[in-house]
Specification:
By secondary structure, this protein is mainly α. Helices cover 62% and strands 0% of the residues. The longest helix has 23 residues.
Length: 264
């Protein structure tokens, strides 16, 4: 059911739908009410598309923005209460704008960034654009941005960092200035396997200190110098079997001591 424009308005896309809204609230659910509702939505679609156009240069397709704005318009029509006395446009504009901003927040950021940081980013970015013509070829400083936005310098720095969080690079992306194909993935660290060794050495420290000097020397030659049992036996003038028994016994003793110290 089409809605005809009434009184003139600053925007050509703001029709007079006051009577239609009063009819909508008075009608029960059914085909007639659905037709009135659809007519109101259709009448205000140009306004929703105008609002979507404001966000056209932010990396999202205009068609997607139109659909999100239309969804915000439908929500505004369904939630609007003409009995409160305010004009529909004053309710619909922030509803549609909020829906579009929510779309950017939930779907356009590659990294999850808190809403507060997103708002800092937007304020810093806007201030940077406004100061660019007067920056004499140099980007505005943190102090300049803080003065322009009314933010603290710490908040400005946080907003500047968030400027790099809207999109992400692949780990296969080559690092700037790299001439040998060195990628971001190559720069990632990994757990140091020696950390477990540090823990183990600390755990057996007291048990090793309690061993006789000869047994400590045998363990050192076996596990640090990587000597065979036969070479250790030849150096100390012992049989290989005796060296094997000493190693087994010392390891069991050190292990028992370590487990005992670890037990609360």
């Amino acid at each position: 059911m089409p809605i005809h424009a009434g009184a003139k308005h600053p925007h050509d896309d703001a029709p007079d739908t006051a009577d239609a809204f009063h009819r909508l609230t008075a009608l029960p659910d059914g085909p007639e009410r659905a037709a009135v509702r659809d007519g109101i939505v259709e009448a205000w679609l140009p306004m929703a598309e105008r609002i979507a156009g404001r966000f056209r240069s932010r990396g999202e397709s205009h068609e997607d923005l139109r659909q999100v704005a239309a969804l915000g318009l439908v929500k505004a029509v369904d939630r609007y209460d003409p009995g409160l006395g305010s004009a529909f446009e004053s309710y619909a504009v922030p509803t549609i704008t909020g829906e579009i901003k929510r779309h950017f927040r939930d779907h356009m950021w590659t990294l999850h960034v808190p809403r507060r940081v997103q708002e800092l980013r937007n304020r810093v970015r806007t201030a940077g654009r406004e100061l660019a013509p007067t920056a004499s070829g140099h980007p505005p400083s943190v102090a300049d941005l803080a003065e322009r936005t009314g933010l603290s310098e710490d908040d400005v720095r946080e907003g500047l960092e968030a400027l790099e969080s809207f999109t992400a690079l692949s780990l296969d992306a080559e690092l700037p200035g790299s001439e040998d194909g060195y990628s971001l993935g190559d720069a990632l660290g990994a757990p140091d396997p020696a950390l477990d060794t540090v823990v183990d050495r600390q755990a057996v420290k007291d048990g090793l200190a309690a061993l006789p000097e000869r047994e400590r020397a045998i363990l050192y030659m076996r596990f640090f110098d990587d000597m065979t049992q036969s070479r250790i036996a030849a150096r100390l003038g012992l049989s290989q079997m005796h060296v094997s028994r000493l190693i087994t016994r010392c390891c069991a003793r050190v292990r028992e001591q370590a487990l005992s110290d670890a037990t609360p």
